[in-house]
Design a protein that fits this description.
- The structure is a single chain.
- By secondary structure, this protein is an alpha+beta fold.
- The strands form six sheets. Strands 1-3-2-4-5 form a five-stranded mixed sheet, with helices on both faces. Strands 16, 17, 18, 19 and 20 form a five-stranded mixed sheet that branches.
- Helix 18 packs across helix 19 (about 475-490).
C-alpha cells in the first residue's frame, strides 16, 4: 500500500507525504484495516511548526528500516493536532496519564478499538540520554501485542476508564456562582509561582501565560493590590526584552527553553500573538506605559505583514526551522550586523542587542535587550531619544536584509478559533489605539470566516485552506469567533457583528431565544461545562467537557466569557445563566490550579461586576463620535459594554427587534450632539454630552 497523505490539505500531513511509512489519515478505512488485520494502531500527532516533530520525522519516519517495522506490524495514522483538536485532547490525556507529561510529537499505541495502551512523545532512533530508541519501543509493543494480549487489552480498558473520569466538580453544593474570594485565591497562587527576577510563572521551559496576566490586571483593579499589577508589568517587560520576542519583525515565539526568555523554540503561533497583544493592550490601558502599546503594534503589524492570507483570514503558524536548522532565520553574527550597518554603528547595535562573537545560541546571537536602550544610550553619552531613533532605523535596515533570507515554512491553514482570537485583538487595538488598519484587518477576517468557512450544509467549519473549508466547527471555534465579533462590534458599532455573535452563542447552547433546537449544542447538561464537540461530530473514545486552559483558552472558559459579555449587552437571562453554570463547573479546577482555569475566572470577573453600561446616541458623523469616545476607550474598564446608535435608529422597533434593543430603551439623543448614558449595575447617571 502507499502513503495516502498526499491527498490531505494539512501542511503537517503533507510534510510526511513522502515518508516510507505507510501513513494514513484518521479515517474509518484506517480503523477498519486495524480491525481486519488485527494490528495495533500507531497514532502520531503533531503540527507543522513543531521543531521536535521535524526531528522525529527526519530521524525515524524517513528511515527505511524503521518504516519497515511500522508498515509490517502497525496501522500508522498521522494527525494534525490543529485540524483535530478533539482527537489531540483525548489522546494527550492518555499520554499525560501514562507518562506524567505531554507534548508533541505525540506517539500513542491503540488497540483496534481505539483504546490507548502505551504512549510517549519523542523517541530517538537509537537509545540515547536515558531514552529507549524508537525501534526498541516498537519491538516491545509488538512483543506485548503478540504474547501478552490479555494484559494489553486489560491495561487499555483501565486507561480508558481513567480517562472517562470527569474533571468537572462543584465545590459549591448549591451550584451557585463562586465569589470574589476565588479571584483573590487565584492571584495568591500566581504570586507564589511568580519569577520575581525574570517575570512569568514557574521555571523553564517558560510560557507566556497571557490569560493569567489578564486575570491579574483584573484582580489588581478589583483589590487595589499593586503586587498584582507589578507581576503583569514585569512579566511583559521581560518578555518584550527577551529573545522570545522578535526584536526586528515583531511577534512572539511559542515559549522560551530557559527561565529568562532568551532562547525560544522559534515557532510563532497565531494564538500566542493574538492573546499576548490583548494582554499588552490591557496593560497599556491600566498603566499608560508606551512600551506596552509598542508591543501591541509590532505584534499586530507582524500578523498583517507576514501572516495574512489574501482572502482575509490569518494563517496559523510559522515554523521554527529554515534550511534544516532551528532559528537560522532569526540569529545574527557581528560580521552580518557590520555588513548592513557599518562597523561603528554595528558595534553600537551589537552592544544594545547582545550580539557577540561567541553568541548566545549555538555560536550565533539571538537579538535581545539585556538592559534598556536608555541605559545603553547613557553609557555612551547619547541622548536617549536620538539613540532610540537610531536603533529604530537600524532595526528596519536589518529587517530588510533578513527578508532576503530563506524564511521558515508557514502553516497557511486558517483556523476559525485562532482567527477569532486575532479578530478580538485587532478589533480591541483598532478602537483603543485609534488605528483604523487594525479594525479593517478584523473586519476582513470576520467577513471571510463568516462567508467562506462553511461546509456543504452551510454550517461553520473548523478551518479553511487553499479554497477549501473542512471540518465541522468545534466549541472553541464558535466561542472564540463570537468573542472576536463582540469586540468588533465595540470597535465599529455595526450591529451585524453582535447579531452574528448571538447566533454563535445559540449554537453553543443548542437553542435560540424561541427555544428552537439548533442541533444539540455543546453543553454538558449535568455540569454546565462545554464539550469540545457536539452530537453532530464524530463520536470518539470519550467525550469530556473541555475545562482546562492550555496555550489557548478552554472551550468552557471562552464560552463563559462570550455568554457573560452578551448577557451584559442584551440583558438575556438565558446567556447569563449559562455563563454562571459554566464558571461554577470550572471552579474546582481553579481551586486546584489557577493556570488551568484563568479564562473562566475572566468570565467570573465579568459576572461579579460591577458592570458598566455606556450607551451613546449620536446625530454627528462617525469621526466625531470616535473622538468623543476616545476618553472612554482610553481607560481600563474590563467590565464595561459600549454601544452606539444614531439617534434616528436608537429607539427599538417592534417590527424589527435587534439584540441590543434593551440597551436603548428610553434613550434618545439631541440634535447635533453626542449623548452618553452611563449606568453601573442598574444605577444610571444623568445623560450628558460628550
Amino acid at each position: 500500500m502507499r502513503n495516502t497523505l498526499a491527498d490531505s490539505t494539512s501542511p503537517y500531513l503533507l510534510q510526511h507525504a513522502d515518508n516510507p511509512v505507510h501513513w494514513e489519515p484518521w479515517a474509518p478505512s484506517a480503523i477498519a484495516r486495524a480491525v481486519r488485520e488485527d494490528k495495533p494502531i500507531f497514532l502520531s500527532v503533531g503540527y507543522s511548526a513543531c521543531h521536535w516533530c521535524h526531528v522525529m520525522a527526519h530521524e525515524s519516519f524517513e528511515s527505511e528500516a524503521i518504516a519497515a517495522i511500522l508498515n509490517e506490524h502497525f496501522v500508522s495514522i498521522k494527525v494534525d493536532r490543529e485540524e483535530r483538536p478533539d482527537l489531540d485532547a483525548v489522546y494527550m490525556s492518555a499520554v499525560q496519564l501514562l507518562t506524567g507529561r505531554g507534548g508533541w510529537p505525540m506517539s500513542v499505541f491503540l488497540t483496534p478499538a481505539l483504546e490507548p495502551f502505551f504512549a510517549g512523545t519523542y523517541w530517538p532512533p537509537e537509545q540515547r540520554g536515558g531514552m529507549p530508541g524508537f525501534p526498541q519501543v516498537l519491538h516491545a509493543v509488538i512483543d506485548a501485542w503478540r504474547n501478552r494480549r490479555e494484559q494489553v487489552t486489560k491495561q487499555a480498558a483501565e486507561i480508558t476508564e481513567a480517562l472517562s473520569q470527569s474533571l468537572v466538580g462543584d465545590p459549591n453544593p448549591a451550584g451557585g456562582l463562586p465569589g470574589a474570594e476565588l479571584l483573590d485565591q487565584a492571584a495568591g497562587m500566581l504570586e507564589r509561582m511568580f519569577d520575581r527576577h525574570h517575570g512569568g510563572f514557574g521555571a523553564a521551559p517558560k510560557f507566556p501565560h497571557p490569560m493569567d496576566l489578564r486575570l491579574l490586571l483584573r484582580t489588581a483593579r478589583r483589590s487595589g493590590r499593586m503586587t498584582d499589577l507589578e507581576m503583569v508589568c514585569h512579566s511583559l517587560a521581560c518578555m518584550a526584552a527577551g529573545g522570545i520576542h522578535d526584536q526586528l519583525g515583531g511577534g512572539f515565539a511559542r515559549y522560551s527553553v530557559d527561565a529568562r526568555w532568551l532562547v525560544p523554540h522559534f515557532e510563532k503561533m497565531l494564538y500566542d500573538n493574538a492573546l499576548l497583544a490583548v494582554a499588552a493592550l490591557e496593560a497599556w490601558l491600566a498603566t499608560g506605559r508606551d512600551d506596552f502599546a509598542s508591543v501591541v503594534r509590532s505584534t499586530l503589524d507582524y500578523l498583517i505583514r507576514d501572516m495574512a492570507d489574501p482572502s482575509g483570514g490569518i494563517w496559523a503558524a510559522e515554523d521554527a526551522d529554515s534550511e534544516g536548522e532551528e532559528g537560522k532565520f532569526y540569529v545574527w553574527s557581528p560580521a552580518e550586523i557590520f555588513a548592513v550597518l557599518g562597523e561603528e554603528e554595528g558595534r553600537l547595535f551589537c552592544t544594545a542587542y547582545d550580539v557577540t562573537p561567541h553568541g548566545n545560541f549555538e555560536g550565533h546571537s539571538i537579538l535581545n535587550l539585556p538592559r534598556p536602550l536608555a541605559d545603553v544610550a547613557a553609557s555612551h553619552g547619547i541622548d536617549p531619544m536620538a539613540f532610540a531613533e537610531r536603533m529604530r532605523r537600524d532595526r528596519e535596515a536589518l529587517l530588510a536584509t533578513r527578508r532576503r533570507r530563506v524564511r521558515p515554512g508557514v502553516d497557511d491553514k486558517v483556523l476559525v478559533a485562532w482567527n477569532g482570537l486575532a479578530i478580538d485583538a485587532f478589533a480591541r487595538a483598532g478602537a483603543v489605539l485609534g488605528e483604523p488598519r487594525y479594525t479593517a484587518a478584523a473586519e476582513r477576517a470576520a467577513s471571510f470566516i463568516l462567508a467562506s468557512c462553511r461546509d456543504a450544509q452551510g454550517r461553520l467549519a473548523h478551518q479553511w485552506r487553499t479554497g477549501r473549508a473542512s471540518g465541522l466547527a468545534f466549541a472553541e471555534d464558535l466561542a472564540c469567533l463570537g468573542e472576536g465579533l463582540v469586540s468588533l462590534y465595540e470597535a465599529t458599532f455595526d450591529e451585524r457583528w453582535i447579531t452574528e455573535a448571538c447566533g454563535l452563542a445559540d449554537l453553543l447552547l443548542g437553542t435560540d431565544d424561541a427555544g428552537n433546537d439548533l442541533g444539540g449544542g455543546f453543553v454538558d447538561d449535568e455540569s454546565g461545562a462545554f464539550f469540545r464537540t457536539s452530537p453532530a461530530h464524530e463520536k470518539l473514545l470519550i467525550r469530556q467537557p473541555d475545562v482546562l486552559d492550555n496555550a489557548t483558552p478552554s472551550s468552557t472558559g471562552m464560552a463563559a466569557t462570550l455568554l457573560a459579555r452578551l448577557a451584559a449587552f442584551t440583558g438575556s437571562p438565558r446567556y447569563r445563566r449559562a455563563a454562571e453554570r459554566a464558571v461554577a463547573a470550572s471552579a474546582e479546577v481553579a481551586h486546584r490550579s489557577v493556570t488551568a482555569a484563568s479564562q473562566s475566572l475572566l468570565a467570573l470577573d465579568i459576572l461579579l461586576g460591577p458592570t458598566e453600561e455606556l450607551v451613546v446616541v449620536a446625530d454627528t458623523p462617525q469621526a466625531e463620535v470616535a473622538r468623543g469616545l476616545a476618553a472612554i476607550r482610553g481607560r481600563f474598564r474590563p467590565n464595561a459594554v459600549l454601544a452606539v446608535r444614531p439617534a434616528a435608529e436608537a429607539l427599538p422597533d417592534a417590527g424589527r427587534p435587534r439584540p441590543l434593543d434593551p440597551l436603548f430603551v428610553g434613550r434618545t439623543g439631541s440634535p447635533a450632539a453626542i449623548t452618553l448614558y452611563e449606568c453601573r449595575d442598574g444605577t444610571c447617571a444623568a445623560p450628558r454630552s460628550l
